[in-house]
Amino acid sequence: MADFLYYRDDAPHEEPAVTLDVFLDQPDASAVRLEAGEDARKLLPHLDRVQLVEVAFPKFRDGRGYSAARILREAGYTGELRAQGDVLVDQMLFMRRCGFDSFLPEAEIDAEVLKATLERYDYVYQPAADDAVPVWKLRHG
């Protein structure tokens, strides 16, 4: 099993992810890998069978994966959503807000640094794919 950071209650999905084209051609596949620039909306008709979507981050500054995560979560996807690649510790809080719940970074991440990063802010200011309630809504209902 890969050594990755995991934030779900259930066990990680271990079936290898196939490319989007292969996934769309194989009706029994349940794990898919989205490369940067691939359209996550192509998965929407198949959300009932998808257990893992691995989203590639070829460079830390490539934000297209955030959009893919948000599209899938807003469409009702509840399976594992894994960020893979050039994933930095200071991005993980925002990735979790977009819906990622597991991470497979290329570089090792110190667990204490990650914990401090994820617990740094008590409040959020905008709604996202996670369950956090924005501070303005807490104040004004």
UniProtKB/TrEMBL annotation:
* Source species, domain of life: Bacteria
One Pfam family from the record: DUF934
The protein here is known as DUF934 domain-containing protein
